[in-house]
Amino acid sequence: MKRFAASELFHSFRHNRSAMIGAAIVAMFVVMVSIGPWLVAQDPYDVAQLELMDSFKPPVWLEGGVPQYLLGTDGQGRDVLASIVYGSRISLFIGFTAMLGSCVLGAALGLLAGFYGGKLDSVIMRIADIQLSFPSVLTALFLMSAFGTGADKVLIALISVGWVVYARIVRGSTLRESQKEYVQAARVSGLPNRKIILRHVLPNVLTPLIVVATIQVGTFILIEASLSFLGVGVPITEPSLGLLIKNGFDVLFSGLWWISVFPGLFIMLIVFGINLLGDFLRDELNPRLK
Amino acid sequence: MTMTPLPSAEPTATPLLSVTGLKTYFHTFAGVVKAVDGVSFDLALGEILGLVGESGGGKSMIGFSIMGLIDPPGRIEAGEIRFEGQDLLRLDEARMRGVRGKRIAMIFQDPMTALNPLYTVGNQLEEMLRLHTDMPAGQRRARCVEMLRDVGIPQPEERLDSYPHQFSGGMRQRVVIAIAMIAGPRLLIADEPTTALDVTIQAQLLRLMKRQVEQTRASLILITHDLAAVSQMADKVVVLYCGRIVERGPTARLIRRPAHHYTRGLLDSIPHDDRSRRRLHQIPGSVPNIRALPPGCAFAPRCSAAQPLCREVEPVLAEFAPGHAAACHFPLEAKL
Q1: Closest in B97, B116, B132 to A200, CB measured
Q2: Cβ contact (<8 Å) for B108 and A192?
Q3: Interchain contact, A190 vs B102, CB within 8 Å
Q4: Which of A159, B90, B163, B164 could bridge B115 with an S-S bond, Cβ 3.0-4.6 Å?
Q5: Which of A177, A181, A194 to mutate to test the interface with B (most CBs of B within 10 A)?
Q6: Measured between CB atoms, does B132 come within 8 Å of chain A?
């Protein structure tokens, strides 16, 4: 930790305002999803806590608003703020898990393709090319309608879309690193290939991954929101931010704007924060921009 | 013919390494590249052999062939590499891994990339001990310190925890030598070990390598284009041109009385310390396209003494003095 505080990365972070803002937003969301459920008044998933009499209450600062529901309520009397807190948990969970999943899968395939080359490389990279030629939302939409809905299905769909980026980046870096003499030196030292890949190549190709991984969390949150909005995402009983927007969308033009606008703002905010952080990492970790 | 086996005619001192008829070809789209084309040589224990030739002459591929690390599209087509009595080409990958690093070590040209930037020098030294010895963890660090001191790195205890970027090029190459020698190999293959370094430290490192090899009674193959370096280091020299041996012999004799015109040309292009300020000699032309070698002697197009015969018939390697052989129809030696 001390080493990190003294590092160059941390120093430029301290002097980069947008990076600090991004980090603050992300930190706020992390705090919100971890302790938020104990702070908000109701559990929006627990039907017993809902009060139908309180449905369609506007935010507190508008006429008819009540202090109990800061950002108003939806048609079932669910507190919009509480829904956002719970929904952010699902959105962030899906975003991070899908990122980790596609990172591990993509990096593994990219390492194999780059290190061994030949037929294995051709097969893996052609699959990646095919995958890449379809828009990601379309692929996910297709998979979702084939496998059905649910958070686990969303994860599968996102991972099968997301691994391609990692595979391509890692393959490229692996090709480059494998040419370097320390990999040759590891080979002439009698190290088995498995160890060369894991111990010598992998750590040296990680840096570009960190950048992509950061930005991809934001992308995944957006794709998940799109899927949920289109009705093939997470189930209605445990709504993510995207599904909250869809729920509110039906009544948006009746003037009940707060049900979908607030979850929308939160999606915007988290993706914005993540991208600020990702941009900073890209500038700092890319040796070509240095 | 009687069925009684003949008494072994082998001399008592079998060579440490014996390469016979080695052919390493690369099958590319544009044709077959004969990177190593029928190369044979012996190396005794404790001997230093210089492999000399221009870039693209197949020098490095001999090293990689011995190591069993020829990647597709390359393939060892024929030949035998006997090391400590066993044919390396017949060993399976697992047994071969036991040879690499432990019995035969190899170092490369560029000290800037030869070390993994993410691990400390000590870590990379220890990796060799973990891999090839059963030395207990407690002793490994002491051994690494000793090894670093041996290759002339000041304050080895502290330097053990330094990262490669904290070393200068020359120091890094010392570390590389330490890593190569720490498991006690019998043979060190050094592929252009000093080419990327300042002239001022090239000699230091060559001396260091020579001392390391002599101390441990190991053998050394020095792959280089620098005939001057070889003349100070090696016991014998093999000169390669387009994957074939054009001349081989004991160093002193080969330097003093080269037989092949190519060797002569290489020697003439070494700057001398006379103040005559004359232009350095150079060999006209460049290495021919190795995919389409001319018939006959591959060097003929650049050779000042070439005759029509040279362009038609490939000369064979012929010994004309003990240990000294050349592949030339009109060797310089004949005039003497």
Answers
A1: B116
A2: no
A3: yes
A4: B164
A5: A181
A6: yes
Plot region of B92 (φ>0 → left; ψ -120 to 50 → alpha; else → beta): beta
Q: What is the pTM of this model?
A: 0.79
Give the C-alpha separation, B330 to A65, whole Å. Answer: 107
Q: Cβ A188–B105 below 8 Å, yes or no?
A: yes
Q: How far is B105 from chain A (nearest CA, A)?
A: 7
Asked whether the predicted pLDDT for residue B215 surpasses 60, the reply is yes
Task: Report the alpha-carbon distance of residue B319 to residue B102 in Å, rounded.
Answer: 35
Instruction: Look at A182 and B113 and tell me if their CB atoms are within 8 Å.
Output: yes
Mean pLDDT of A227-241: 83
Residues in A closer than 8 angstroms to B72, CB to CB, are 118
Reply yes or no on whether the pLDDT at B170 is more than 80. yes
User: Taking CB atoms and an 8 Å limit, are B72 and A118 in contact across chains?
Assistant: yes
Q: Is residue A34 part of a domain?
A: no
- Average confidence (pLDDT) over A15-32: 90
Give the contacts of A224 (CB within 8 A, at least 6 positions apart). A91, A94, A95, A98, A154, A158, A233, A234, A240, A242
**Within 13 A of B320's CA, how many CA atoms are on the CB side?**
21
Farthest CA pair distance, chain A: 77
Whether pLDDT at B39 is above 70? yes
Domain CATH code at residue A190: 1.10.3720.10
What residues of chain B lie within 8 A of the CB of A182, using their CB? 113-117
A183's CB contacts (< 8 A; 6+ apart) are A177, A196, A200, A201
Number of domains in chain A: 1
Residue A204 lies in a domain: yes
Residues of A in contact with B187 (CB under 8 A): none
- Confidence band of A53 (pLDDT split at 50, 70, 90): confident
The answer to whether the CB atoms of A191 and B108 lie below 8 A apart is no
Q: Check pLDDT > 80 for residue A269.
A: yes
Residue A246 lies in a domain: yes
DSSP symbol at B55: T
Type and span of the H or E element at A188: helix A181-188
Tell me the residue range of the domain where A219 lies. Answer: 80-289
When the pLDDT of each residue in chain B is averaged and rounded to a whole number, the result is 84
Confidence of residue B1 (pLDDT cuts 50, 70, 90): very low
Is residue A14 one of the residues assigned to a domain? no
What is the overall mean pLDDT for chain A?
85
